[in-house]
Design brief:
The chain is mainly alpha-helical. It has helices spanning 2-5, 11-53, 56-116, 119-163.
């Protein structure tokens, strides 16, 4: 039956579709706001024209219309800000989904790596390495000690020869 209704959209596709709808709504709001601002300029010009002619009743009506237009412009600006906030939340959700997918991949890789590791064998290798490191340290220590001792004897003999 799924072929009749189309396939189910993935969350990524839904996010992309919603993001496009939000961007389209923002563009539409900008267009309407621009139209209202142009209308506001025309009303201001008409108010000035009517005021010069002394038509105060018409000026009052136009002034009310001007205030109403300015209030609508403010509302459009607020709606745009709210839609942009929703768009930012959608973007955040998208990045969180990508991060979750990445974490899922890392978890799988770590699980595979743990399966491949032989812990008793690793411990045995590390203990052997530690023994070898200790023997090298002891060898270096005895070499340094013997070198210092022989240099002390050499210096003592040189001082004794010079004093004679």
């Amino acid at each position: 039956m799924s072929f009749l209704f189309g396939r189910k959209k993935t969350p990524e596709e839904l996010l992309k579709q919603n993001q496009r709808a939000l961007n389209r709504a923002i563009r539409d709001l900008d267009r309407e706001r621009t139209k209202l601002e142009q209308q506001e300029k025309k009303v201001i010009a008409d108010i000035k024209k009517m005021a010069k002619q002394g038509e105060m009743a018409a000026v009052k009506v136009m002034a009310k219309d001007l205030v109403r237009t300015r209030n609508y412009v403010k509302k459009f600006i607020m709606m745009k800000a709210n839609i942009q906030a929703v768009s930012l939340k959608v973007t955040t959700l998208k990045s969180q989904g990508a991060m979750a997918n990445a974490m899922k991949g890392v978890t799988k890789a770590m699980g595979a790596m743990n399966k491949q590791m032989n812990m008793p064998e690793m411990q045995k290798i590390m203990m052997e390495f530690e023994k070898q490191v200790i023997s090298v340290i002891l060898l270096i220590h005895s070499f340094i000690t013997s070198t210092i001792h022989s240099e002390n004897l050499l210096v003592t003999n040189m001082v004794a020869d010079e004093s004679q």
